[in-house]
Amino acid sequence: xxxxxxxxxxxxERDDESGRRWSAKNYPGGYxxxxxxxRMHELSPTFAQLQRGLDRHVASFAKALExxxxxxxxxxxxxxxxxxxxxxxHSLHLHPLATIxxxxxxxxxxxxxxxxxxxxxxxxxxxxxxxxxxARADRQRWVVVPxxxxxxxxxxxxxxxxxxxxxxxxPRISISFNYNWF
Length: 182
What we know:
Elements: H1 2-15, H2 17-26, E1 31-32, H3 40-43, H4 45-64, E2 75-84, E3 90-93, E4 100-107, E5 115-118, E6 142-145, E7 152-156, E8 161-163, E9 172-180
Antiparallel strand pairs: 1-2, 2-9, 3-8, 4-7, 4-9, 5-6, 5-8
């Protein structure tokens, strides 16, 4: 499936003139279909197949988070492509109006930038001294989840995150998505 997704991501980048124009202004050096083709799960059978797998993982994640969804199911609302060539960055952000967000890695050259998650308490550390270099992972101010092709990363949508500059010589390609329950 990754080969088919990769081929479709590359075709979309090539054919999506509106997305390339928006990306030039808002995602310098990279490409995203976020503003042009953000419901790929409705446009492509391959992305619809991906969604069916995502649905199962998101349902399990919501159960692990002990969400009371009041008898409703989480539904995918958005699904878009991100292509990050060398040195492209995706700045710190969150996903408003969503419950669970995530990324599926399609193509990750060796050394690709991972997903950097911010400790939500960061603004409360005003006078805290720096951490020791070997501080435990649960004490870190940031956690980086490595980018690896075929890997799915889920997180609650309020969690601020970013992708540092991609140091890899070839593009890092991922599919991002949001799920909501209202």
